[in-house]
Amino acid sequence: MKRFYITPGEAAGIVAAQSIGEPGTQMTMRTFHYAGVAEQVPTGLPRLMELVDVKKVPKKPLVEIHFKKEYAKSKKKVEELMKKIEAVHLGDIGKAVENLEKRRILIKLNEKVLKSLDLTIDDVLKGIKTTGKKSKKKQYIIIKFDTDDLKKLRRHYIKIKDTLVRGVKGITNAVIVEENGEYYIKAKGHNIADIVKLKEVDATRVFTNSIKDIEALFGVEAARSALLREIKQVLYMQKLYVDIRHIMLLADAMTFRGKVMNIGRHGLAGHKASVLARAAFEETVKHLTIAAAKGEVDLLRGVSENIIVGKTVPIGTGRILLEFTPPKEE
Q1: What is the per-residue burial (b if ≥16 Cβ within 10 Å, else e) of 125-161?
Q2: Which of 44, 117, 182, 222 satisfies CB 3.0 to 4.6 Å to 27 for a cystine?
Q3: Are the beta carbons of 327 and 296 closer than 8 angstroms?
Q4: Alpha-carbon distance 213 to 190, whole Å?
């Protein structure tokens, strides 16, 4: 007797949809967060919806930054790297004031904050990229401009206020975590493209909960793995132990076209091969009009379209009837 992994004609998609959908609707709204990283990280149904809708940036983006072995074993080295990575903006260490009359920008630095962050005024001066003439006086930085265009001066002021003095753009609230004798960083943000450029970082183990960022940097296969990990984590955290194969089918369906697609009308549902299946979901008139204009043919190979026309659905025994019905005798 031949053993099958799955019965021919099995409605695998429907079973997977029910297996994820039913516990998904029963989810509790408990919240979970990494202490000091980001408060109220979406979990449960809000996070699941965020994943299947493939939001460009999650509500609370997080990164895990792992380091090469020569750094990961030492907490002191990781602490130094954390200082190097965590973003410090000019607004965090001082206050900028513009003087339009004298065509200059005055920056007053907080010495206590500078000391706590192990920074000097010279470090700040190096970090400020501007066409103006820079000078320092005690805890002040003065930037003078030779322009009468006040709009241009205001643009310089806005840019200087948001200057990144040190660290990786968008990476904040970093904390050190120990796991299996190794130290790594968890932080708020999703800018993994700039993180992997650092020579101390192990690029093969950098992770973010932003699926789009993973797809952009590592490709669709990595995005599929990230989707799988994140959906599983959301369900398992609520003690909803859904078979991993159902989640794998969902992740496969969202990525099989070579890019990550959401499951809504602009993604999977809107790109089905069948005209009737697309029309049955949303924007019925639009889909039927476009299909009529293009002269599309519906071969009635799916479930939805056969239900609409009242034919036997091609799953289970219906598939056998559909494919192996003998020709009628004359």
Answers
A1: eebbeeebeeeeeeeebbbebeeeeeeebeebbeebb
A2: 44
A3: no
A4: 7
End-to-end CA distance of the chain: 38
Compute φ and ψ for 107, nearest 5 degrees: -115, 120
C-alpha–C-alpha distance, residues 160 and 107, integer Å: 9
pLDDT tens-digit profile of 173-229? 888 888 888 899 999 988 899 899 888 898 889 999 999 999 999 999 999 999 999
Take residue 96 and report the two structure tokens written for it. Answer: 């900028």
- Give residue-wise pLDDT tens across range 106-118: 777 777 777 777 7
Tens-place pLDDT, residues 14-69:
899 999 988 888 776 554 444 445 445 677 788 888 898 888 888 889 999 999 88
The residue ranking higher by pLDDT, 243 or 99, is 243
Both tokens of residue 127? 């970090």
Q: pLDDT over 70 for what percent of the chain?
A: 87
Measured CA to CA, the distance from residue 232 to residue 280 in angstroms comes to 29
> What Å distances lie between residue 308 and 146, 284, 288, CA to CA?
73, 13, 14
Contact by Cβ (8 Å): 210, 59: no
For residues 313 and 303, what is the distance between their CA atoms, to the nearest angstrom? 6
